[in-house]
Amino acid sequence: MAEQEKPDSGAGTVGDAAKAYLLQGALPAAGSLASAGLTLGPSFIGQAAHPLQRQLRLIALRDALKVPADIKVVSPTAHERFGQMLGGLGSGPKMQRLLGILGSSYNPLKREVSFGETGPIAIAAHEFGHSTAPKLWSTIEGGSRKPLQFAAGMTVLPGGYRKGKETVDEGPSSVLKAMPRGAAIGTAFGAPALLEEGRASIKAVQALRRIGLSNKEIAKAVLQLGAAFSSYAAAPALGGAAAASFAAVLGRYMAGRQRRKARESQQ
Hints:
The chain is mainly alpha-helical and 267 residues long.
């Protein structure tokens, strides 16, 4: 921000225009920014120094990505819910950053994007990146995430249960043998989501370059997006492994119980 806004600078008008432009997907004229004493500035990572400045950065991203006109920007209700739930844990910069990330999302079925106000601009670019997917792919991939998670569980659990019964004569650590298969199945069923997350992150980095970030800022954005992608990649694998080990424990228990009943009936 070049200087502080002045009451007579017309900033209110520009602020209203920024909101309209954000919904319409066009950039305001450079003269409008100058009249408000604002610039996009060199630092696009992190919370903007001024709410209007942040809005304008989102506008620049939307323009760079050529986001479809039917995509709506909505208020981050998830951010507000998490804020209420986690508010007691503190209100420092790291917590605010986390809440901003949690409040950013894309709903492919409703074609809605939301941003947590305190989240990194790289995450906002990532959510906009989701919205550039073809409608058919976006609808199928977004609508299939929960069914695929359910299908993964239904595939992992029987296999883990069988493995537990088969290894009942081995030590308790034998339940770990079920985990690799569970992790592989979880990852396989999560592949479409991982593909879309990776695609959105690539689009985000391209857009951040297009709007003028420095190499240092791009590197920071890549780290942030890489950390987010790692969590997406780890979740289905860890979930599958955990479900398989749980089923294996249950299988061992049931096999041992059947053996005890068989011995008791013979006595």
